[in-house]
Predict the structure.
Amino acid sequence: MAWLKEHGIDCVVESVLNSEELDKTVAHLVIAARNDGYAQGYAECSQHVNNALKVDWDTSKSATYDANTGAALAALKAEFNNLQLPVMDLINVALQSDDHVAQPKEIFPDEDEDPA
């Protein structure tokens, strides 16, 4: 049990937070959120210009015109919420085993121990 307290929990946390799948999904989500925020901000600003100047501001040539950034953001949020990390499957199997220390030790061997 000492191994689990000293190394195991750290290994689990690091493997989840450093997973490539999580990194890619979060990066795509940040970009989609930024794009959606820009599009929403531009639309709001254009509406303020229309109201203030009593003109019909032409937004058809803007980069955000008719862009459905909200749908892209919603899709990436759903992808993030349903993300399956391969390491979590291994951890779930280890937690269901009789020996909660031996299996995680096999998944996350100590650097100072020989794997042989």
Remarks:
- Residues 21 and 85 are 7 Å apart (CA to CA).
